[in-house]
Amino acid sequence: MKYEINSGAHSLQVDFQSEAGRLIINTDDASLNLEAVEVQPGVYSVIMNNRSFVVGVACNGENRVNVNGTPISLELLDAVHLHLRELGWDSLKEVKAGLISAQIPGLITKIFRGVGDEIVEGDPLFLIEAMKMENEIKAPVSGIIQKISVSEGQTVEKGTNIIEIG
Amino acid sequence: MKYEINSGAHSLQVDFQSEAGRLIINTDDASLNLEAVEVQPGVYSVIMNNRSFVVGVACNGENRVNVNGTPISLELLDAVHLHLRELGWDSLKEVKAGLISAQIPGLITKIFRGVGDEIVEGDPLFLIEAMKMENEIKAPVSGIIQKISVSEGQTVEKGTNIIEIG
Amino acid sequence: MFKKILIANRGEIALRVMRTCREMGIEVVAVYSAADRTAPHVLFADEAYFIGSAASSDSYLKYEKILEVAQASHSDAIHPGYGFLSENTEFAQKVSEAGIVFIGPPADAIKTMGDKTMARQSMLLTDVPVVPGTEDPIEDVEKALSVAKEIGFPVLIKAAGGGGGKGMRIVDSAEAFESAVGKAQRESQSAFGDGRVYIEKYLEEPHHIEFQVIADTHGNVIHLNERECSIQRRYQKVIEESPSPFIHAELREQMGKAAVETARSCNYVGAGTVEFLVDKYKHFYFLEMNTRLQVEHPVTEMVTGIDLVAEQIRIAEGKPLSLKQSDVSVSGHAVECRIYAEDAANDFVPSTGTISMLQIPDGPGTRFDGAIRQGMEVTPYYDPMLGKLICWAKDRDSALNRSERALREFYIGGIETTIQFCRSVIGHPQFRQGPYDTHFYALHKEELHTELSTATDEVMLVAGGTLHTHQDRMKHSSQKAGAGESSRSNWVSAQMGRQKQ
Amino acid sequence: MFKKILIANRGEIALRVMRTCREMGIEVVAVYSAADRTAPHVLFADEAYFIGSAASSDSYLKYEKILEVAQASHSDAIHPGYGFLSENTEFAQKVSEAGIVFIGPPADAIKTMGDKTMARQSMLLTDVPVVPGTEDPIEDVEKALSVAKEIGFPVLIKAAGGGGGKGMRIVDSAEAFESAVGKAQRESQSAFGDGRVYIEKYLEEPHHIEFQVIADTHGNVIHLNERECSIQRRYQKVIEESPSPFIHAELREQMGKAAVETARSCNYVGAGTVEFLVDKYKHFYFLEMNTRLQVEHPVTEMVTGIDLVAEQIRIAEGKPLSLKQSDVSVSGHAVECRIYAEDAANDFVPSTGTISMLQIPDGPGTRFDGAIRQGMEVTPYYDPMLGKLICWAKDRDSALNRSERALREFYIGGIETTIQFCRSVIGHPQFRQGPYDTHFYALHKEELHTELSTATDEVMLVAGGTLHTHQDRMKHSSQKAGAGESSRSNWVSAQMGRQKQ
To the nearest 10°, the Cα dihedral for C289, C290, C296, C302? Predict the structure, then answer.
C-alpha cells in the first residue's frame, strides 16, 4: 500500500507490504526489509536491512517519533489522506494547527487575547506555568480566535483544548 | 485477623487489620502502620512507621520475599493454616517437600535413581543443565520415589514436576 | 559523628547526598510531598516522612514541618541540597537553634552572599576584582544613568534579590536606560518579591567560570579548580566542564586565590562556589558566590577524586579538611550534560508523562546522577531536571567522545528530553574546538535546532515503517478487543463524514 | 584505522566493547541468536545479524557464520570478547586469512598459552617461577606418583585442556592418588573433550593474583599492576580488587616483571592476563596466561585510568602503546562484584525469568558493566552473569564502603541474584580486614549463607505485611475478574477437600 512519509520539508514516497511479521518497504531506488519488535509499550527494537535502531512511537505529540534517542517530526499519510490531498483538501494540517491544546499539565497564568481577536502567527497567546517555569505559547497560525476554553488561574491537564483559531 | 510469620527458625505472631489503604500490624509489644504502594508488578514501596523499604513479593519461589535487595524465606500462615497445624496436620511443608519440580528451565542430563528407590535426604536425584552449568538437584526429604515424570535428554520448562518422593 | 541526616530535598540531589551518607555509615531520612510518595528519594531512604501537598510551598519549602520531622526522627543534621531551603538564612538559623546541624555555611555568610549588592559591597573591600557598576541598588535613575555613562554602554541591569536571568536587561544606549530599569524592577519584584536592581558593565565575550571552594571551621580554605559554565540557555547552564578550555595555568592560580579570598572575606564554612566572569581579554571579575552545593559539583569530583558531599559532612562535624591546597591535583577532563524533561525542539517547554523505557548510559568514565526509573511518572510540580550525565576521560577530546557515546546510548521513552540537544551542542564544531563564551547558544541557536529537525532518508524510512507497524498492531489489538479502528483512522472517518455533509 | 568492528559476543562484554568502539568513532556490528533478538547488545549496535538458534554451538560458537557476517558487513576487525571464540586458535587464524583483523594475540600465542602443559613447558625456559609439578600430561600413573612424592603431598591434579575447576582434584596421600587421577581424567574428557591431566604442588593459603599486560606489534610490553582474585566459589571469581591487600611494592615489581617476561616469552600482542598463585610465604608461581580481555578488566581501568579496549583496538591497528611502563600510575582502589542470575541461598542454582524492576546503582565512583534492562527476560541459554559492579574510591576502605552502598541500592526484581551474597562477602570482617586467600569462601561459607537466611523482626513484619497486602490485592483483582480465590487459597481448599474424603 502506498504511503507518504513527511518530516519537515523532506518527503518520501513508499510502498509498504506486510509479510511474515516483517514489513517490506519499497522506494523508487530500494527495497528494504524491516522487522520491529516491541520491547516496551511504544518502544521497538527495529532491524532494517541489518541496521539496528531503537524507535519510540508513543512520545509526546502524535507526530513525533524517536529514533535512537533523536526525536523527529513525522507524518505518515496513507492512500486515503493522499487522495484527500489530491482533491486539494489538506485537512490534517489545518485542523491540527488551529486548535491549541496544553502540551503540559499546568496552571494558566495569563491569556493575552480574546475571542474575535485577529492573530498573526507567532503572537503570544497564553502563559502556562509548569515545573516552576512560565511558558509562553505562541500562535502556530494566523487567524481569528474562535473559542477560548479556559480562564486565567485554571489548572489544566495535558491535552486540554485551550484556544481555537479559525 | 491473626497470622503467623515464619522465617527460618524465627516466628512472629501478628494481627493484621486493613484500614484506609494501610495495614495496622499488632504484635505483643507494638502497633505498626504499614503502607505498601506497588511501583512495578510485584514490587512495593513500603513505609512502615516512617521506615522505608522496597519489597519484592513475586520472586522465584513462592516463599521468597525480597526486602531492600535481601531475599528472605517467608511463610505467612493465616487462621486456616494455623488451625490445621493445631490439628497436627502440617500439610504445607509435607506436600511441597515431596514433589521436586524444575526451578529453572533446562535439559535433564541425568536421573540417578528409579521409581521405588529408597532415598535419604541429600541424595542426588538428577542433573539439570542451564546457563552452561550442570546443577545437581538433591532430595529435600527422605522417602521412596513414587513417580518420575521426565526422562533423560528431555528439556523442561520452569516448574515442571520431575520426581515425587512419598 | 552524625548517625542520621535528614535530606530536605528531592530528586537527584537527594539521592546524591544519600549515597555519600550511606557510604559514611549515616542513616538517611527523606521528606516527601503528596506527589512524591513513590519518588526515588523515598524508595532510597532509610526513613521517609510525608510533609504536605504537591506544591513546594506546602512541602519542600515548609521549613517548620521539616524541622519537626528532623526532631521526631532524631536527625543529627539537615542537608538542604540545592534550591528549596538551601540558601534560606532563616531556615539555617532555626535549624541551629533547634540544636541540629545545618550542613552549609553560617547564616551570616548566606546572608552576605545571597544579596548581590551586599556581596558586591563586601567584595569591594577585598583585592578581588568586581565588574564595574553601581555599588547600591538603583534608587535615583538619573544618578544611575551617569554611572552607566561612566562605565560605558552597553550595561547590564540585574536583580539584587535573585538569579536565573529574571529581572535582567542589556541596555545599549542612554535613551533606552530608564524604561529598561523600570521593566527590570517590575520583573524582579514579581519573581523574587524584591524589586531592587543594580547596574554592571556588560562584558565582551564573557565566560562564566566558577571555582569550587571548601572551608572548615578551623580556618582552612582551599579551592578545587574551576568549572567552565558558559553553555547556557534561558540563563540556565546546560553543559559544564573542567578544566575550562579557556583559561591558562597562571590565570587559574590567580582566580583560585581570588576564590579563596572571597570565601575568607565572609568567614565561609562548607562547600561553596565563587562565580566569575572572564572577558575576551582574560580579565576576570567576581560575579557572585553560591553558598551551597552546586548542581554541577560532580565535574569537580570527577577530576579531583574528592567527594564534595563527604567533605561537607566532615566539615559540619567539625573536622578539618581532608586535604591541603597542595594535595589538590586534577587528572583528566570531565563534562556534565544536564538532562531536562523538556522539549528542546519546541522552545524547551516542560514535558511530563510516564517513562515507558529507560536506558541509562554506563561503562568506563560514565556517571549519571539522577532520580528516575522506568515506569515512573514525571509530574509538573518541580524542577524539570531528570539528572546529570558526567563523563570523565584522560583529555578533553576523549571526554567529549565519551559524552557523545553516552548520550547516544541514553534512551528515555514516553517524555521529551534534552538528550538530543546536548548531543547537538557537544557535536558542534565551535564547542568541540573550545573556547566558547556565554553567547554560544544565542549565536548557534539555529544550527543547534536545525539539527534536531533534520532526518536522513534512512531514519525517515525506519520511523515511518515502525509507525506503520505500530498503528497496524494497535488496529488489530483494538479490533480484537471489540473496538473499531484506531483513533487516528476514526478521526479520518469523522472528517470524511463531515465533508460529505 | 578501523571503520567497523564486529563483536563476536553477547551480554555485558559486547556492550563494553561497543562503548569504546563508538567513542573511537568506529561502527559496531552485533551478531545474535534466536534467543537474543531484543538483547541489549542488539539494541545497542549499529548493525545486527541473525546467526542461528539459541544454543551457542548453533550461533555464538559457529565461526563460519560469524566470518560470513564480518565479510557481508565489510567489518575491518572482529573483537571476540571473552569466552565463546576468544581463545579459539582456528577462529583467530581463519579471521586473519579472510583479511580481517582478529583483535587479540597471534594464533601461536593463544595456542601456547591455551594448553596448560605447553604453557608450563614454555615458562620453564624463562626465569618466571612455575608451581613444581609434572612437565607433561600424565600417561604413566606410576611415574606421576613418584613425581607427586618428590613434590610432597598434598598435590593438585588439573586438566590440561580447560579450567573452571573441572577435572581438578586435591590429593592428600599416595593411596588416593591413582583413583583421583582416573576421576580427573574422565571429568576432563567429558568437559573439554581432552582427558589429559597433570599434577602440581598444592600451595598453602594460596592467593590468586593476576597481572594485566599489554603488548604492541612494535615489541613494547608493559604491565598495569595486579588484580586480587582470591574470592572464588565453584572455582569462579566473585569479587576482585586492585591493588591486592596482600602484596607489597617490591613483590609487585617482581611479579610485574615476571608478567612482562611471560608475555615476551610467547611473543604476545594485545591485552592479556598472567595469573599467579602466591603462597603464605609470599612466593609466587606462574599459573596460566589468559590470552584475551578478562571479565575483571574494569578494576584495572578504574585505578589506572586506561581504557583497555581502546588499547586493544589501537594495538590491532598496528599503533604503538599509548604509554610507557613509567607512565603507569595507580590512583585509589577499585573493587568488582560479579552479579549473577543465581540463587545464592539455594546452592547458586541459575535463576531465569523476567526482570520486573531494575534499579542500577550509580553516582560517584560507581560503574556497572552490564547488559540488562527492566522488562527483559533472562533466558537459560548463556552464562548467568548479568553484569559487574565496579566501585572506585581513594582507598580500600572507602571503596568497600562504596561497594556496600551500591549493592544496597541495587534492585533486580523477578529473578534471584548474587547481590546479597556479594554484600555478605564485603561485609565479612575477614574480607574487610584483608588479606584473604582462595580458601575464603570454603572457610566462611556457613557464616556467609547464614546471613542470607536471617531476618530481623522488623524485616519479617515488613515482608509479612507486604505479602499480606499483595495477596489481598490479588484476591480482589481475581474476584473482580470472575475467578475464585488466589491460587494459594485454592490449593488450601483442595487440600481440605482431600482431607474430608
Answer: 70
